[in-house]
From TrEMBL:
<keyword id="KW-0809">Transit peptide</keyword>
<comment type="similarity">
    <text>Belongs to the acyl coenzyme A hydrolase family.</text>
</comment>
<keyword id="KW-0378">Hydrolase</keyword>
<keyword id="KW-0719">Serine esterase</keyword>
<keyword id="KW-0677">Repeat</keyword>
<feature type="domain" description="HotDog ACOT-type">
    <location>
        <begin position="81"/>
        <end position="201"/>
    </location>
</feature>
<dbReference type="Pfam" id="PF03061">
    <property type="entry name" value="4HBT"/>
</dbReference>
<dbReference type="InterPro" id="IPR006683">
    <property type="entry name" value="Thioestr_dom"/>
</dbReference>
<keyword id="KW-0496">Mitochondrion</keyword>
<dbReference type="GO" id="GO:0052689">
    <property type="term" value="F:carboxylic ester hydrolase activity"/>
</dbReference>
<dbReference type="InterPro" id="IPR033120">
    <property type="entry name" value="HOTDOG_ACOT"/>
</dbReference>
<feature type="domain" description="HotDog ACOT-type">
    <location>
        <begin position="286"/>
        <end position="398"/>
    </location>
</feature>
<protein>
    <submittedName>
        <fullName>ACOT9 thioesterase</fullName>
    </submittedName>
</protein>
<dbReference type="InterPro" id="IPR029069">
    <property type="entry name" value="HotDog_dom_sf"/>
</dbReference>
<dbReference type="GO" id="GO:0047617">
    <property type="term" value="F:fatty acyl-CoA hydrolase activity"/>
</dbReference>
<dbReference type="GO" id="GO:0006637">
    <property type="term" value="P:acyl-CoA metabolic process"/>
</dbReference>
<dbReference type="GO" id="GO:0005739">
    <property type="term" value="C:mitochondrion"/>
</dbReference>
């Protein structure tokens, strides 16, 4: 695939890493393992799976460090949480092959999820506290937009980001991926994550430091974060699980049904709901699926001993890409990733079931929905964890996908 819009749990130790803060110079991190170690130090997480229960027990004592009110926490500026990362593909050619695909472009394992967590801990850092009482987890990937199809394999990549909006217990983080070309860093990818703060045991919401915009530009960014929150609330109330389809939606669905109704049978009385015909150059939606299964091992756990969100995103993206590739019979490029809601944490040892479905097509564009659920073999229960929406563009025009049922 052209990209791996995944959040890698770790990067090779040869990866040079530099972090800078707007207030004071942050210590440099030569690789992702040191960033992960820094997060473990902040949280007090275990380095070995066998010690994870004891480590989580020790975190309970941090409850006393939680703020009783948001007003008790010092406000922060956007530049206080600013960090940046360099992936030196240009200056360290020996690491390039680790990121190449068969088309000689980069399948960049972006580090956005882990990066977002570190940015949030930078925003909420208290100088007198060695360990943070907060458990910061990803609630939502609001948007990932790509600015170019190809990532060059011989040019440095830079990741930047900062907290852009703060509620009572949640933070929006804006992050950017840029690549060095002709002496300038050009935009490649933009991402917006919503992170939530929880208590040390990750059971209840916890307050975070307020954010103060310092310029008209920052005020506009903050205002957009507030609008994004309102849109998410509005979108959740419009779910089909809570509200009936609108009149416009019902008409669209019924028009699709009527246009695929097989009326060639003699007599009006012989036509039924099951008498359907596939239009030319079309594919039934039920024939545009792929499925996958992953066993969630301790290797993929995050610092809170749940399965790392980036692992879930990577596996979903890879299945989505394969679904689009199979459907279009040519190489697809990712255009956008939208609305990844982390509904339920995934426990170590779970079976992760993934289902990819082409749900809409238009000319060269393919919309793929990937449903992710966990299966507990002991209780035989299924729970949805995420629903991913990927927009791809194919090299060639693709057939029209057509639903066969109202569902």
């Amino acid at each position: 695939s052209a990209y791996r819009l995944c959040i890698m749990r770790k990067l090779p130790s040869v990866l040079a890493r530099t972090l800078t803060s707007g207030t004071s110079a942050s210590p440099g991190f030569p690789d992702m393992s040191e960033v992960r170690s820094r997060l473990r130090d902040i949280v007090g997480a275990s380095t070995n799976w066998r010690d994870h229960v004891q480590a989580m027990q020790e975190r309970k004592a941090l409850h006393t460090l939680l703020a009783k009110r948001q007003e008790d926490l010092p406000p922060r500026r956007m530049k206080d949480s600013y960090l940046e990362v360099i992936l030196p593909l240009g200056s360290q050619p020996e690491i390039r092959e680790k990121y190449l695909n068969v088309h000689n472009s980069v399948r960049a394992g972006s580090i956005f999820d882990l990066f977002a967590v570190l940015i949030c801990y930078t925003h909420t850092k208290q100088e007198m506290q060695q360990r943070s009482p907060l458990s910061i987890v990803t609630a939502l990937v609001d948007k990932i937009n790509l600015c170019q199809k190809i990532i060059h394999p011989d040019c440095d990549i830079k990741f930047t980001g900062n907290v852009s909006w703060v509620g009572k217990t949640s933070m929006e983080v804006k992050m950017h991926m840029l690549q060095l070309h002709d002496g300038n860093y050009n935009p490649v990818l933009d991402a917006t994550f919503v992170m939530v703060a929880r208590d040390p045991e990750n059971k209840r919401p916890a307050f975070v430091n307020p954010l103060i915009p310092e310029s008209p530009e920052e005020e506009e960014i903050f205002k957009q974060g507030e609008l994004n929150k309102l849109k998410r609330i509005e979108f959740s109330t419009a779910s089909l699980l809570k509200m009936a389809p609108t009149a416009e939606e019902r008409n669209i669905v019924h028009d699709i049904f009527l246009n695929t109704l097989d009326t060639r049978q003699e007599g009006e009385g012989t036509v039924s709901f099951r008498s359907r015909k596939l239009p030319p150059n079309s594919v039934w939606m039920e024939d545009a699926k792929l499925k996958g299964l992953e066993i969630c091992h301790p290797e993929e756990r995050n610092i809170f001993n749940r399965i790392f969100g980036g692992f879930l995103m990577r596996k979903a993206y890879e299945l989505g890409w394969a679904t689009a590739c199979s459907y279009g019979s040519s190489r697809p490029f990712i255009v956008s990733v939208d609305d990844i809601m982390f509904q339920k944490p995934v426990e170590v040892g779970s079976l992760l079931l993934l289902s990819g479905q082409v749900c809409y097509t238009e000319k060269n564009y393919i919309q793929v929905r990937v449903h992710s659920e966990v299966y507990n073999a002991n209780t035989r229960e299924h729970h949805t964890t995420n629903t991913f929406h990927f927009t791809f563009i194919s090299e060639n025009e693709v057939p029209q996908v057509v639903p066969k049922t109202y569902g």
